[in-house]
Each structure stands twice: as structure tokens, then as C-alpha cells.
Specification:
The chain has 224 residues and is of the alpha/beta class. It has one domain (36-219): Vaccinia Virus protein VP39 (Rossmann fold). The protein has eight helices and eleven strands. It has helices at residues 33-42, 47-53, 67-79, 94-98, 110-119, 136-139, 166-174, 189-197, and strands at residues 6-10, 16-20, 25-26, 55-61, 84-91, 121-124, 127-133, 147-152, 176-184, 200-204, 215-219. A hairpin with a 4-residue loop joins β2 and β3 (25-26). The termini are far apart.
């Protein structure tokens, strides 16, 4: 898609996001892009507790502007500056990665996200970021890593239904460590039903900027 189809906007917490005019959807919650990354993704996936143990592996699906990963890095390094952080991001659109150079969110680590969005790889002391380009439903099949935390942040189920289907959710779960947590903004009944069918224990996530909660999926220890 051409860059002119991505339009910048300011969300309610003052942070920047974009509206994709082809898809007809915003990349973050209009109530606050930075707030969403911190409260719906980084905090409920136990980044702080994992950092205290010394290492974190994160799968960031639909990496976009990288706000969710940046929030996780900030929290982890605040708790443990020596924490080893491994992030794999799945993203289909280089144009939104290019937009990282046109925003200035409040994350202390955002320069790392900006660098990774250009090179698709970053190895910086104890932080490694790898961005894999392509359809996440396909690129996930090549992943052999196991993850502590998963950020599931596609466009809405009506806009990107293939990334909310049971088959894809099962592939995600296969790559999660026991008791690892998946976070997503959607609380749609279809999403939650599909998570349960895929084997997740579904819980309410935080309520941020709206009356309904986000969603958490815990990878229980029983077999896939």
C-alpha cells in the first residue's frame, strides 16, 4: 500500500497513532495509544515479574509501531537493567514500520524500536529484536522459539478475521511456554470462544478507556 493511505492522528492520551484508510481501522485505541500498550499488553503479561527472573521472550504479532514491545522493554529495564530481552515481531506492512520515524512516544527505549523497524534486526547488549515480514498466519509456522508473553494486536476481527481464527491461535499456543500469557485488546465473544477452543484459559484483561475489559489467554499446562 502507498504511504498516503496511512493518516496520522492523536489519541486521547496525547500519543500518536495512524489510521489505515485501506483497512478502515486505527492501529491503536483512540483513548490512548501509549496507555493501551502499557496497560493492556505489557503489564498484564507479567513483564515485571519475568524481568525480575532475568530474561523475557516476547512474540509481538502485528508489530506495527512497536509500542507494545517498547512498553515491555521500558518496564523490564526499570525492574532489572540487566534483563535479557528477546522480541520477535510479525508484521506484513513495511509502511507502518517506516512510520516509527514520524512519531515520538514517551517510551525511553523507542529508539531501539525505530532502529529495528529499519533493519528488521537489532542486537543491542541484552536486547535482541527481530522483525519477520509477511502474513503472520504463515510466518508463525517457521518459528521454533518458545515465548513467555504474546501480544496479539491485529486489526479488529471484522477487518482481519484470519488472525483471530482458532487455527492461528493454536499455532500461537504451541509456541508459548507453560503458563505464558497472551494479551489482546479484543473482548469479542468470537475471539474468546476461539481462544478457549485453542486451549487457552480465558480471563478478563484490564478495563482501559472503555466499559469492557481486554482479554488474556493463559497457556495451561495440559497437552495441546
Amino acid at each position: 500500500m502507498e504511504k498516503k493511505t496511512i493518516r496520522k492522528l492523536i489519541t486521547a492520551d496525547g500519543s500518536e497513532s495512524f489510521y489505515n484508510e485501506i483497512v478502515g481501522d486505527i492501529y491503536h485505541s483512540s483513548t490512548g495509544a501509549v496507555e493501551e500498550a502499557l496497560k493492556k499488553y505489557a503489564k498484564p503479561t507479567k513483564i515485571r515479574e519475568l524481568a525480575e527472573k532475568g530474561s523475557i521472550s516476547i512474540l509481538d504479532i502485528c508489530f506495527g509501531l512497536g509500542y507494545n514491545s517498547a512498553a515491555a522493554i521500558d518496564i523490564a529495564l526499570q525492574v532489572n537493567p540487566d534483563c535479557h530481552i528477546e522480541i520477535i515481531g510479525l508484521e506484513i506492512d513495511q509502511n507502518i514500520l517506516d512510520m516509527t520515524r514520524e512519531v515520538n512516544p514517551s517510551f525511553r527505549s523507542y529508539s531501539l524500536i525505530q532502529e529495528a523497524s529499519v533493519k528488521h534486526i537489532l542486537n543491542n547488549s541484552n536486547i535482541n529484536i527481530k522483525i519477520i515480514m509477511g502474513d503472520a498466519a504463515k510466518t508463525i509456522m517457521d518459528l521454533n522459539e518458545m515465548f513467555d508473553s504474546v501480544f496479539l494486536d491485529p486489526f479488529s476481527p471484522s477487518k482481519a478475521p484470519e488472525l483471530w481464527q482458532t487455527g492461528f491461535l493454536k499455532e500461537i499456543r504451541k509456541r508459548m511456554k507453560p503458563n505464558a500469557v497472551l494479551a489482546t485488546y479484543s473482548c469479542a465473544r468470537m475471539v474468546r470462544d476461539n481462544l478457549r477452543t485453542a486451549g487457552f484459559l480465558v480471563k478478563d484483561g484490564p478495563i482501559v478507556g472503555r466499559k469492557t475489559p481486554a482479554t488474556l489467554g493463559v497457556n495451561q499446562k495440559h497437552s495441546l
